[in-house]
Amino acid sequence: MTPPNAVVDDQAGDTAGSGVGTAAASETAATPTPFQRPLPRTIAIANQKGGVGKTTTAVNLGACLAELGYRTLVVDLDPQGNATTGLGINIRDLQASMYDVILNDLPIEDCIEATAVRNLFCAPAALDLAGAEIELVPAFSREMRLRRALDSVRDDYDYVLIDCPPSLGLLTVNGLAAASEVLVPIQCEYYALEGLGQLLRNVQLVQRNLNPRLELSAMVLVMYDARTKLADQVVQEVRDHFGEKVCNSIVPRTVRLSEAPSFGQPIITFDPTSRGSIAYRSLALEVSGGAAQRAG
Fold first, then answer.
1. For 38-63, how does the pLDDT look when each residue is reduced to its tens digit (9 = 90+)?
2. Max Cα separation, the chain?
3. Whole-model pTM?
4. H helices of 68-169, where?
5. 6, 76, 156, 234: most buried, per Cβ within 10 A?
6. Distance (Å, rounded) from C-alpha 122 to C-alpha 112?
7. 256-260 contacts: CB < 8 A, separation 24 or more?
8. What is the C-alpha separation between 121 and 87, in angstroms, rounded?
9. 118: enclosing H helix or E strand
């Protein structure tokens, strides 16, 4: 049985997925969702497990929000820099990066790069960021570096999406301290919930000690493979456990989604009619809840 609002991953390809995804998107657009919040919003996309779709979600959700007309900034906190390259930015050509912002107090506006998608901007990562975890240890107010940097530009964007690294170290803590919400991508596979408890405990620690306004606002099921019963079981288990925190939109596992980063493009420009595009557009409508863009 296919869960509601899933974009079906079958041999019929984009035609079958298109009908389901479009219906989901129009339904989501028609009614406000429990994920809607006042603008501007700062969302940390976090999960300490690697390879669960954090960067894919940051890049493609950001692109779809920008397509809806929201001015969106993707902050790449992952030293691998995959969100940066996935948006078509060559990290070897950068004059400044998030390393300089966090370690050297560079104003974040001096490192922000425009992308090929209208309304979408990126604060890029560089390989230097790999050493930031160690260099931050003796730094004063080390957990609040990113929050202070973002304070100067927060009102310039409707959405700031922070792509956190796959760990629970100081860079992730900076992301959680700077955000007002946490969005957690969950892979539709056997180990999906492994380690999730530790992430939720860390979110609570940050709430208590650094950022009382932080909330776990949404969970997104990704890498859904309709050919397996296991995927359905994971979907049901996550929905039973977290209830309304789980988005209705489900992102399928597709070849086109995995190909898009190698071309430096989000899925909506790489293959606008693909099932991945439809799924992330539906997710963007659900997360935004059809909230009006701010004037000015």
1. 889 999 999 888 888 899 999 999 99
2. 56
3. 0.86
4. 82-86, 98-104, 132-135, 145-151
5. 76
6. 6
7. 257/56, 257/60, 260/86
8. 9
9. none
